Amino acid sequence: MRVLLTEDNADLLLAVSTSLRGAGLAVDTAADLPAADLALTVNSYDCAVFDRMLPAGDALEFVEDRRRAGWPVPVLFLTARAAPADVVTGLGVGDDYLVKPFEMAELVGRVLSLCRRAPSPSAPTVLRCGDLELDPGRHEVRRAGALLTLTRIEFAVLELLMRYQPRPVERRVLLRQVWDEQVDPSSNVLEVQIRQLRRKLRVPPMIHTARGTGYWIEPA
Q1: How far apart are the first and last CA of the chain?
Q2: What pLDDT does 120 receive?
Q3: How far is CA 44 from CA 3, 77, 94, 195, in A?
Q4: What is the pLDDT, as a whole number, of residue 8?
Q5: Are residues 109 and 72 in the same domain?
Q6: CA-based angle 195:198:203, to the nearest 5?
Q7: What are the DNA-binding region positions (predicted)?
């Protein structure tokens, strides 16, 4: 089960994510709403945990907008806003509401409960870019009908580029989403994977470098 945790307090973010991982959950973290929005665009989650008051605004409004668009993932608001009216409003948009300070064991239990309530995912959509096809469900990539052999990391990098097309994906985003927030930003692991992907995808080339930014993919 996979959880998105959005919290702008770095110490709390680390403490909560560590506890959730200790309970056997995969956890992606975001420090603000734009980062959370990107994570939700490229990943599927069984539960999302949001602090309410974040640098870019109130997460309640962010979740409310997504709800109107049909987003079904269970949400727990983790916040210092403890007034009865805030709790009622939060429960009208989210699925659970926990006030800070809180007991970590209670938070973990509530998140696990919400994960079990998550809707069954529909069949993953096959992603296409020109003659390139990526099937997340079967974990297959084909170009011009020919099956390609990719490593798990290569597949993850390519999937993110294809989900984000035609926009470039920043290097830091690729590192955080494919590896994790602990990766050394000066590491060349991403560049190595991009070189290998370009070789395996063959010519004409599809993956391009946005200098000083990251990479993007477009039909050949």
Answers
A1: 36
A2: 55
A3: 9, 19, 17, 27
A4: 93
A5: yes
A6: 145
A7: 124-219
Helix ranges (H only) for 139-213 are 152-164, 171-178, 189-201
In angstroms, the CA 68 to CA 58 distance is: 16
Residues 6+ apart with CB under 8 A from 161: 169, 207, 215, 216, 217
* Same domain flag for 171 and 201: yes
Q: Based on the fold, state whether residues 106 and 198 are members of the same structural domain.
A: no
Q: Are residues 17 and 104 in the same domain?
A: yes
Interval 64-112: pLDDT, tens: 998 888 888 999 999 999 999 999 999 999 999 999 999 999 999 999 9
Phi, psi angles (nearest 5°) of residue 137:
-70, -45
Both tokens of 37, joined, read 């929005």
DSSP code of 165?
A: T
Domain tally, the chain: 2
Domain contains 160: yes
Which residue, chain included where needed, has tokens 């979740």? Answer: 63
Chain centroid offset of residue 198 CA: 24
pLDDT at 179: 75
| Ranges of residues in the chain whose predicted pLDDT is under 50 | 123
